[in-house]
Amino acid sequence: NAGVTQTPKFQVLKTGQSMTLQCAQDMNHEYMSWYRQDPGMGLRLIHYSVGAGITDQGEVPNGYNVSRSTTEDFPLRLLSAAPSQTSVYFCASSPSERGWVWAQYFGPGTRLLVL
Amino acid sequence: AQSVTQLDSQVPVFEEAPVELRCNYSSSVSVYLFWYVQYPNQGLQLLLKYLSGSTLVKGINGFEAEFNKSQTSFHLRKPSVHISDTAEYFCAVSRIQGAQKLVFGQGTRLTINP
To answer: How far apart, in whole angstroms, are the C-alpha atoms of residue B85 and residue B62?
Structure first.
């Protein structure tokens, strides 16, 4: 198993550009989530999904869109990038709503710089 | 809502010395508690978790943590650190009901000096 994979590893955007951060898992996990990590602030939940076709907002959802058309993929979209979205983004997955406390897996992260 | 405060942003210690990383949380409902470790340029890895039962929880790499409900704390300890323990450590909580959504502390950077 590859686990949780994220692409790209690094990205530089100009203000106003759009892009999609990709996240995929091959463990047939139901639950997937996106976090952003900023210095001195830990990780904050952006959006999460409890299964294909079901998504919900986390703590800091503004400026981000998500969709979950398959169990494996959970892309994060920035429609119009802003410098405040400069951050490191982590995707995570877990087997189910009940099983997540037993196994939650994080991807390696995507570093995003918005100029 | 839940919140987590990690009391030290940086902790320098000498190799083979003991270390304690402090974590306090706030919640009006029962919670699960976690410690994660992030090695340089890597994702997060679960060190240990408290779900219920014994308040002393043992994790990987010789770390342990003690849940203190009266003081709403979940401090992480290791009796003797190694250079390889240099990393950032995050304390996190989640509600038991309708969980999955982790709330993280700000992180503590542990630096081990030879």
So the answer is: 10
- Please say if the pLDDT value at position B12 is more than 70: yes
| Residue (of B101, B95, B18) closest to B64 by Cα position | B18
Quick check: A19 and A84 in contact, CB under 8 A? Answer: no
A39 against A63, higher pLDDT: A63
E strands, B1-114, in order: 3-6, 10-14, 19-21, 23-26, 31-38, 44-50, 56-58, 64-68, 73-78, 87-95, 103-104, 108-113
Q: For B49, which of A94, A101, A106 is closest by C-beta distance?
A: A101
Chain B partners within 8 Å of A4 (Cβ): 43
pLDDT tens-place string over residues A59-96: 999 999 999 999 999 999 999 999 999 999 999 998 87
